Amino acid sequence: MPGYLTTHVLDTARGCPAAGLRITLHRLDGADRSQLAETVTNDDGRTDSPILPQAQFAPGQYELVFHAGDYLRATGQAGAEPLFLDQVPIRFGMSDATAHYHVPLLLSPYGYSTYRGS
Q1: Separation between Cα atoms, residue 56 and residue 76, nearest integer Å
Q2: How far, in Å, CA of 47 to CA of 71, rounded?
């Protein structure tokens, strides 16, 4: 079975899923960067389907860009401009062509963390 990629975002400052946060996915190939997908998180802070489904999955280098600034502004957490966090890029590699990769983002206005989830 081919692999696939999922993500979700939790708002750690408010203690809830980050609904309505825009995410873009890019494939990296040396200096080239091509956008593969764009989506918005649902009420559970997840995407409605894998951001990189099995039919499009291929091992390689990728970048998820979480458009945190727009979300923070919409939820009243932005603070003064320029924002401390606006776009949060996470670059990662996927080497196993049959694995489920899950890359979540734990977000607050002044910090974030990520990990390889399950």
Answers
A1: 36
A2: 15
| CB within 8 Å of 109: residues ≥ 6 apart | 13, 72, 77, 78, 79, 83, 84, 85
Distance in angstroms (rounded) separating the CA atoms of residues 60 and 94: 5
pLDDT given for residue 70 in this prediction = 97
Task: Tell me, rounded to whole angstroms, the distance of Cα 118 from its chain centroid.
Answer: 15
Structure confidence at residue 71 (pLDDT):
98
Alpha-carbon gap, residue 41 to 33, rounded angstroms = 23
CB–CB of 23/40 below 8 Å? yes
Give the pTM. Answer: 0.96
Whether the CA torsion 88, 67, 38, 8 is positive or negative: it is positive
Tell me the mean pLDDT per 10 residues along the chain, length 118: 93 98 97 97 98 96 98 95 96 97 98 96
